[in-house]
Write a structure and sequence with these properties.
This protein is mostly beta strands. Helix content is 4%, strand content 38%.
């Protein structure tokens, strides 16, 4: 689970059942979801019958911070900023109403300053 504390007072993040690693590429995780603690809202993955771009849940790379589809760190941001993209409503095609997680302008990538990032590993026995 990844949690971002933002300067605009929002606490947003995402949960993924699959683990992050340094192997660059997208991971498919039907359990992945976005959340905003201020809104007390969860944005779950939409169901899909075919494996395609809409199934991409989160991105892993050795030079990129945690990033769910259209919410997270871009390359070399050092966790100081996250980005929320509403370009062509792509996030809404992956997560149910995912564009509502943060106030953003449609058609552009919006940048948010991060105060703190916390990453939790949850182990279930």
């Amino acid at each position: 689970m990844t949690l971002f504390y933002l300067t605009n007072q929002n606490k947003v993040g995402f949960f993924a059942k699959e683990s992050f690693d340094t192997n660059s590429g997208w991971k498919i995780d039907p359990c992945c979801f976005l959340f905003n603690l201020n809104q007390k809202q969860k944005y779950g993955k939409l169901k899909s019958d075919n494996i395609n771009d809409m199934d991409k849940s989160f991105y892993c790379a050795n030079n990129c911070g945690p990033s769910a589809n259209c919410l997270g760190c871009n390359l070399n941001t050092n966790l100081k900023h996250i980005y929320h993209s509403m370009e062509t409503d792509y996030i809404n095609k992956v997560f149910n109403n995912g564009s509502m997680i943060l106030p953003s302008k449609k058609g552009k990538e919006n940048e948010y300053e991060v105060i703190e990032t916390e990453i939790f590993q949850i182990i279930i026995y």
